[in-house]
Write a structure and sequence with these properties.
221 residues; alpha+beta; Arc Repressor Mutant, subunit A; Umud Fragment, subunit A; nine-stranded mixed sheet; 3 helices; 11 strands; disordered C terminus
């Protein structure tokens, strides 16, 4: 892969995450607003990324982009802080190559964990949880979920129309979510947990520190 400037990498990360979350690429104006730069500057960076074959124009949409399927890195995110939905900056803080690693595939994501409410399920403080988008989750699946403005990792259950997010630590109480009055979204289904992420030699190009997701029910961060 050709070398990228810091700004080009930031824009590429932003586009990748926007596509994963929103289902489409951001506009030039959205990118410009995100990084407080001119639209013409965004156009220059986009053209550079296209020339380096890291982006391609979407058919029939001259200002929409796609990330080539050859992308083979798993993004690892900081979790949302209290009061902020989604992931911090909506950009990954680390990357991990998926070639022959953990059965991961393109489109999977990871998030750093803080807290011990899922301790009995082997999800410990400081570990990295990898998850996959899922249209359907069943009873007892461990999921990454967004409830209102917090992100948490819990075991999924239903109680009538309500969602019960169960911890795996007797010191914590379940989170009860009512989709009719609360914002609730399953971000993904947990597929594996890595307790010593440093041993996997992550490919990190963000230069930022590790983020966290709080697994406890007292505070979702």
């Amino acid at each position: 892969m050709e070398n990228l400037s810091q700004r080009q990498q930031e824009i590429l990360d932003f586009i990748e995450q926007h596509i994963r979350i929103q289902g489409h690429s951001p506009s030039f104006r959205e990118i410009a607003a995100k990084f407080d730069i001119a639209v013409s500057t965004v156009q220059d960076h986009i053209e550079a990324l296209i020339k380096k074959k890291l982006l391609k124009k979407a058919p029939k949409h001259s200002r929409s982009f796609q990330v080539p399927l050859k992308e083979n890195r798993i993004p690892i995110f900081a979790a949302a802080k209290a009061g902020s939905p989604g992931f911090v900056d909506e950009q990954p803080v680390d990357h991990l190559s998926i070639e022959g690693t953990l059965g991961l595939k393109s489109g999977d994501m990871g998030v750093y964990v803080k807290g011990d409410s899922m301790y009995d399920a082997g999800i410990t403080d400081g570990s990295v949880v990898f998850f996959r988008r899922a249209d359907y989750v069943k009873e007892s699946d461990i999921i990454v979920a967004r409830v209102d403005d917090g992100v948490t990792i819990k075991r999924f259950s239903r109680q009538g129309k309500r969602i019960v997010l169960k911890p795996e630590n007797a010191q914590y109480k379940p989170i009860i979510a009512d989709p009719e009055v609360q914002s609730f979204d399953v971000i993904g289904k947990v597929i594996c947990v890595v307790k010593n992420f440093a041993s996997l030699k992550p490919v990190s190009r963000s230069g930022r520190g590790r983020g966290i997701v709080e697994t406890g029910s007292k505070r979702m961060s």
